[in-house]
What we know:
The chain is α/β, with parallel strands linked by helices. The protein has helices at residues 28-39, 50-53, 104-118, 148-154, 167-178, 199-213, 222-238, 241-258, 264-277, and strands at residues 2-3, 14-20, 43-47, 62-66, 69-73, 77-84, 90-98, 122-131, 141-145, 157-158, 182-190. The protein has a nine-stranded mixed beta sheet with strand order 1-3-6-7-2-8-11-9-10, with helices on both faces. Strands 4-5 form a two-stranded antiparallel ribbon. Residues 280-323 have low confidence and may be disordered.
Amino acid sequence: xxxxxxxxxxxxxxxxxxxxxxxxxxxxxxxxxxxxxxxxxxxxxxxxxxxxxxxxxxxxxxxxxxxxxxxxxxxxxxxxxxxxxxxxxxxxxxxxxxxxxxxxxxxxxxxxxxxxxxxxxxxxxxxxxxxxxxxxxxxxxxxxxxxxxxxxxxxxxxxxxxxxxxxxxxxxxxxxxxxxxxxxxxxxxxxxxxxxxxxxxxxxxxxxxxxxxxxxxxxxxxxxxxxxxxxxxxxxxxxxxxxxxxxxxxxxxxxxxxxxxxxxxxxxxxxxxxxxxxxxxxxxxxxxxxxxxxxxxxxxxxxxxxxxxxxxxxxxxxxxxxx
Length: 323
């Protein structure tokens, strides 16, 4: 670990982490942490030594010019702190980087060492995966944990997954062994439009994170970007009858499966989010309305001011690429 600056004492800190690569379909998870860092002006205080964890033939360093001087940026993972004021002040430790190429156990131990030193009370790891979900419906966001007490208290699922895993699964397991409460939030990205960015999935992750840590997150222009993204995909799907038919079949399957689950809990979560966001003292554009909580309570539809379109989605019979 390369420490860049000292970190002052933190208030009820929560660590929020995301990693580019296999666990980051549509770049939704890494974009969520980047959004937090930008909106709350995070201050980087440490970076992992790139030599220890990255294969530079897989994740190559980049060269750039700074005032005519050539400099190199190495692929790594950085930690920053954001301080959130208000009635319930709370600090966040943001972990943002690339899934490491090697020495995953050492990588996780180093992050957990900082979590312990900073007094982190909860670790939240964001991820995104490809799924059979239509882009016209709320983004499904599942919250899983290996801690049965945490699962009961926060109404999360205890993870039952078996199969290949990435650094998100490894870090959560490391937290379990270290006795640190940890939750993974996963957004499902439509596999037929997996190209980044996916602001709708990023928005859903942030809304779910907001519910989890009871903290109002400023959305900036993210809600408008999500509407524009959906409008662009709507238009592209309309131009291809096979894609349009496939999307319709996904919609029917989703609606049929979730019809009995329009529960009071989902409505209550959306109402609580609305109450948080109607603070008259908030600066313009700091919050915006929560339009896609990923819990089935509402979903983004047409936006007359749509922005740039994403690339045309592949046909439904195309093979899914690895994420």
